[in-house]
Every structure is written in structure tokens, then in C-alpha cells.
Design brief:
The protein is α/β, with parallel strands linked by helices. The chain is built from 12 helices and 10 strands. Helices cover about 35% and strands about 15% of the residues. Bound molecules: thiamine diphosphate (TPP), iron/sulfur cluster and magnesium ion.
């Protein structure tokens, strides 16, 4: 006779050993993709790490004085120089004979735009630093201004949509290709929708002696105009449409990509976000912009050969991260 055993899942999870570099109690908005991404990075990197953090949402919501949500050594840099501060920390640790890893972090504004010169220098000089960019595709901390990472046609406060404009005119900068052109040992893109893929990539980067770069797509419910409960769904659709390909690059060459099992139309992704609402108007201009964005996604799918061949690949866009600890499926 079999006896039914009730498993106290919540209790099990609470008691499971886990290193938390970034703890709860910070002040991020509900459903903030950046908070989730930073927690996953700090969990995966472990305790022997020092952080340099550029000004931006992550810095602000984790360190409202006199509190800090960080359980590891953490330093606030300027908006523009997290990579330089990280490089200095690494040089000092090396002089002291310590193997502690340095992680420098910034938002897309602090990475693609104002911190780009410092980042390029750090990569070119070969510092042993992992740089993580949390990409929420605008300057969120100061009120949703467009950055060079904001996607084409997205509405922000400085690229508004209206009778004269269809949102941002320019294209999203291809930062990972620019970074990879420094011929660093390892660069990768990741998404909050795929936590174990983030963990794998952080651990890979932590083991590298030299510069590495991780670009994490992190939806911002406030700036993108979606329900906070949909953050993971939105992030997953960015990958499944081909708009945000998950790739790895070694010494400048593409070394891997997460295949997409069933490619979704870009309208599935865009339609969940208020920043793209104007693209669904009944007008020729709106249809043209939608076609343009679909063409950008198709281009990524071709360039990185993202179309999955197997319907049962546990590492593709449907298979990866569909189970969690304890063997239960994500809802
Ligand atoms: C030199 C300088 N210019 C402007 C600012 C104001 N500022 C602080 S954070 C920020 C935007 C940050 O955007 P991003 O790096 O994308 O991070 P997010 O807040 O979106 O996570 C700006 C413009 C500043 N602190 N320093
Ligand atoms: S504004 Fe966006 S990035 Fe900033 S805390 Fe809120 S959800 Fe997160
Ligand atoms: Mg940003």
C-alpha cells in the first residue's frame, strides 16, 4: 500500500542552502527585471566577489541610505565609469595577491552610451573583470529617456510617439558585437526569462582569466508599460521572436546560440507593451514600422541560425528553464 506524503515545498525551498549576494528588502518596482537579473548574477557569482555599480536604477533601489541589500563588497561608481572603477579594484586586488573576482555593472545607458569609453578601455587592457549590462532599453532611473539601446520605434519621454513621430527613429546598438570586436575571451547575451542560462553564463565568465561581458535583457514594467506580472513572459517573447537572440562569443567569434523552437511573430512581443502601442494603429506608417521590426527579427534568426531543428531540444527557447528546483514546471 502506498502512502501519500505531503511535501512542504515552501519550507523546503526556505531551507535550501543558497548564497544570496543581493537580498530582498530593496526598493525596485514590482516585477522589475533588473532586480531579478542582479539577484541571479550575484547568486551565481558567489561570495568571493567585489562589485562596482554605475549610477542607475540598480544602484538606487539597492542602496537607499542607510540601508543596503548587498551582502558582498559593493561600490558605487559614477554613471560613466563602473568599468574603470572595476579595473582599479582588480589591479589593487592583484597587487595584494588576492584572487577575488571583480564584477562591474551598469544599465544600458551606463554601458552603451556614457560608460562606453571606460568599458572599451577596460576590455582592451585585458582586466580580469566580468562586466554585466542590465539592459532595460532606456534611462529608467531618470524617467525613461531613450538610450542607444532603445529599440527602433519604441516610445520614450525623449522619443515620443505622436502625429509627427513613430517613436525612436534609430536602431538599437549592437553592443555585444562591438564588445566582441575587442577579441575578449568571452561575451554573451542572456535574458531574465532563462535563469539557468544566466547562471551557466555567469559561472563560465567567473572562471575566465581576463575580461568577459554579459548583456542581460531585463524588462522594466514602468518604462515599457506592461504589467509587472508579465515580465518573464515579455522577456521570453523577445527571445522567441528573434528580437533578442541569446548567443555566446569567444574571441570575437560566435560559439553558440539558443535555438528557437517555434518562432513567434514580433507583434506577440510588441503588443504586450504600451511603448509600442502606436504600432497597432490602423495606418500605413504603423504597418511599415511593424514590418521593419519583423525584418530585424528575421535578420537575427538568419545571421545566428536561430531556427531550431528539433522539437524536443531541452536547451532551446521552449525547453530551457521550464523546470525548477524540485522538478516542478514553471507556471
Ligand atoms: C554624468 C551624469 N549624467 C547624468 C546623470 C543622471 N543619471 C543618473 S542614472 C541615469 C540613467 C541611467 O540609465 P541606465 O544606465 O540605462 O540605468 P537604468 O536606470 O535604466 O537601470 C542618468 C541619466 C548622472 N548621474 N551623471
Ligand atoms: S523603473 Fe524599471 S528598472 Fe527601475 S526599478 Fe522600476 S521596474 Fe526596475
Ligand atoms: Mg536602462
Amino acid at each position: 500500500m502506498t502512502q501519500e506524503i505531503e511535501i512542504p515545498l515552501a519550507e523546503l525551498r526556505r531551507n535550501q542552502p543558497r548564497f544570496g549576494g543581493l537580498e530582498s528588502g530593496h526598493r525596485a518596482c514590482l516585477g522589475c527585471g533588473e532586480a531579478l537579473a542582479a539577484r541571479l548574477v550575484s547568486e551565481s557569482a558567489g561570495p568571493d566577489v567585489m562589485y562596482a555599480n554605475a549610477t542607475g536604477c540598480l544602484e538606487v533601489f539597492t542602496t537607499a541610505w542607510p540601508d543596503s541589500a548587498w551582502q558582498v563588497p559593493w561600490m558605487h561608481s559614477l554613471f560613466s565609469n563602473a568599468a574603470s572603477i572595476g579595473a582599479g579594484m582588480e589591479a589593487a586586488l592583484k597587487a595584494q595577491g588576492k584572487a577575488t573576482k571583480v564584477i562591474a555593472m551598469g544599465g544600458d545607458g551606463g554601458t552603451f552610451d556614457i560608460g562606453f569609453q571606460a568599458l572599451s578601455g577596460m576590455l582592451e587592457r585585458g582586466h580580469n573583470v566580468l562586466y554585466v549590462c542590465y539592459d532595460n532599453e532606456a534611462y529608467m532611473n531618470t524617467g525613461v529617456q531613450r538610450s542607444s539601446s532603445t529599440p527602433h520605434a519604441a516610445a520614450t519621454t525623449t522619443s515620443p510617439a505622436g502625429s509627427e513621430s513613430m517613436g525612436k527613429r534609430h536602431l538599437k546598438k549592437d553592443i555585444v558585437s562591438i564588445v566582441a570586436a575587442h577579441h575578449i575571451p568571452y561575451a554573451a547575451t542572456a535574458s531574465v526569462a532563462y535563469p539557468s542560462d544566466i547562471r551557466k553564463k555567469v559561472r563560465r565568465a567567473m572562471g575566465i582569466e581576463g575580461p568577459s561581458f554579459l548583456h542581460i535583457h531585463a524588462p522594466c514594467p514602468l518604462g515599457w508599460g506592461h504589467d509587472g506580472a508579465l515580465t518573464i513572459e515579455v522577456a521570453r517573447l523577445a527571445v522567441q521572436t528573434g528580437l533578442f537572440p541569446l548567443i555566446e562569443l569567444e574571441r570575437g567569434g560566435v560559439a553558440g546560440a539558443m535555438p528557437i523552437r517555434e518562432v513567434r511573430p514580433v507583434s506577440d512581443y510588441l503588443g504586450l507593451q504600451a511603448r509600442f502601442r502606436h504600432l497597432f494603429a490602423d495606418s500605413a506608417r504603423a504597418r511599415e514600422e511593424l514590418e521593419h521590426l519583423q525584418a530585424l527579427a528575421n535578420h537575427n534568426i538568419e545571421v545566428y541560425r536561430l531556427r531550431g531543428e528539433s522539437r524536443q531540444d531541452c536547451m532551446d527557447s521552449e525547453g530551457a528553464d521550464t523546470v525548477r528546483r524540485g522538478g516542478m514546471r514553471w507556471a
